[in-house]
Amino acid sequence: MIKAKYPRLGRRIQETADEYMRRLKVIESLEDKGTAFVFRPSSIKLGSRYDRDPGGALEAVYDEGYKDAMKQMDSMKAWIAGIEAIC
User: Fold this and answer.
1) Is 45 found in the same domain as 17?
2) What is the CA radius of gyration of the chain?
3) Which of 7, 12, 57, 61 could make a disulfide contact with 47, Cβ separation 3.0–4.6 Å?
4) Whole-angstrom distance, CA of residue 58 vs CA of residue 50
5) Considering only CA atoms, which of 42, 43, 38, 39 is closest in space to residue 27?
6) Count of domains forming the chain
7) CA–CA gap between residue 32 and residue 24 (Å, rounded)
8) Which residue segment(s) compose the domain that 24 sits in?
9) How far, in Å, CA of 76 to CA of 24, rounded?
10) Same structural domain for residues 30 and 44?
11) Closest by Cα among 14, 42, 39 to 27
12) Cα 32 → chain centroid
């Protein structure tokens, strides 16, 4: 529907999605080569625009991200040590 009524907007939305996928492939390639360490969330949670406590939802997402990062801390330290050994 958007593409029919607003073709330029539809194209731009598609271009944005395509660019995101290209960048994701580059990031995954760097990660596979060992030249990047990537933090990923354990789950994706989208808030609602009707949420009565948007700050609480944002804090919950932050807390989950912090916990995920702490779980990956040993892996990240090992990766850094490996990079430092190369340099």
Assistant:
1) no
2) 19
3) 57
4) 13
5) 38
6) 2
7) 12
8) 1-36
9) 20
10) no
11) 39
12) 16
First to last CA, the chain: 53
DSSP code per residue over the chain: -HHHH-HHHHHHHHHHHHHHHHHHHHHHHHHHHTS------SS-----TT-S-HHHHHHHHHHHHHHHHHHTHHHHHHHHHHHHHH-
Q: Is the pTM of this model over 0.85?
A: no
Record the tokens describing residue 73, joined without a space: 């801390």
Regarding whether 50 and 31 lie in a shared domain, the answer is no
**Interior angle at CA 34, CA 31 and CA 38, nearest 5:** 40
